[in-house]
Amino acid sequence: MAYQPHPPHHQHHHDPQITAWFMAVDQDRSGRIQAHELQSALMSSNGRRFSDTACRLMIGMYDNGTKAIDINGFAQLFTYINQWIDTFKRFDSNGSGFIDQFELAKALKLMGYNFSPNFADIIVKKFGRLGTGLAVDEFILSCILIHNLTASFRQKDPHFQRVITSSN
Ligand SMILES: [Ca+2]
C-alpha cells in the first residue's frame, strides 16, 4: 500500500481499542500524546526502543506543528504504525528483526515507489547497518522521510520521478 496521509478529518467515534491505546499511551492524561509518550509505548521486536527521531517524525505527521497529537491524529497514526509493522514483518523473511537492503527494495516496490536498485542500499547505509539492515523504527523513519522527500519533489516538480529514479 502506498503511504498517503490524509488530512485530519473530524471523527467522533473511535474503535474502543484505539481509545484504550490512546489512554494507555497518554501517561500524563493531558489528552494529547507527545513523542516521549509514544516512545515509551513502542518497542521493536528485538527489544530496542524506537529512536527519538522516529517518534518525533511520527508525531509530526499529525501534530500541526504543536508537537503533540489528539485522539484523531492518534487514530490515523495508529493505522499507519500497524501497516508499517505488518509490511516490516512480511519482508523480514528470515525473522531477524531487521530488513536488509534486498528486502527493503521489495517493500518499497510494494509501497508503490519506483527507485533505482541501489536506492535501498543507500537507505540501509544511512539509517541502519549494511549487512544487518534496518530495525523496525529505522524502517518507519525511512518510510516517513521518503514520503516527505517525494512529496516535496512532487510539489516542486511534477516530473520528479525522472530526477530521483535513475534509469536501469
Ligand atoms: Ca500526554
Automatic annotation (TrEMBL):
SMART domains: EFh
Annotated compartments: Cytoplasm
EF-hand domain residues: 13-48, 79-114
GO CC, alphabetical: cytoplasm
Protein origin, superkingdom: Eukaryota
The entry's keywords: Calcium, Cytoplasm, Metal-binding, Repeat
InterPro entries, per the entry: EF-hand-dom_pair, EF_Hand_1_Ca_BS, EF_hand_dom, Peflin/Sorcin_CaBP
Main location as per UniProt: cytoplasm
GO molecular function, one term: calcium-dependent protein binding
Gene3D superfamilies named in the record: EF-hand
PANTHER family in UniProt: GH27120P (PTHR46212:SF3), PEFLIN (PTHR46212)
Name of this protein: Peflin
Annotated source species: Orchesella cincta
